[in-house]
Design goal:
Layout lengths: L1 H17 L11 H35 L6 H34 L3
Helix pairs in contact: 1-2, 2-3
Length: 107
Amino acid sequence: LRRQRQRCIRDSYEAQNNTKNPTKGKSNSAVENLANSFGQAFSNGLNDVNTSQNAAYEAAETFASGGDISVHEVMLASQKANLTMQMALQLRNRLVNAYNEINNVRV
């Protein structure tokens, strides 16, 4: 799961860097603004996935070291992290499929 998370984060940063406006000084079009806001929303979502993964790891570590946390809280954090990762992967898969369909359209 860590590899998948790191790959998703790396892919999102690369996508975000590719959507930056290379021509500075010119006003952005509506499409560029939409692409930038989508990239920012996607990046925020991946940061949330990363946060939930880290919270689950810390909860498990605290429980294993005998800290003041119940097994229920550890399992909830773990399942939340799992669900956010599954959702991020499904979103990525759908975006890749949409991109491939757009590339296959003949003009």
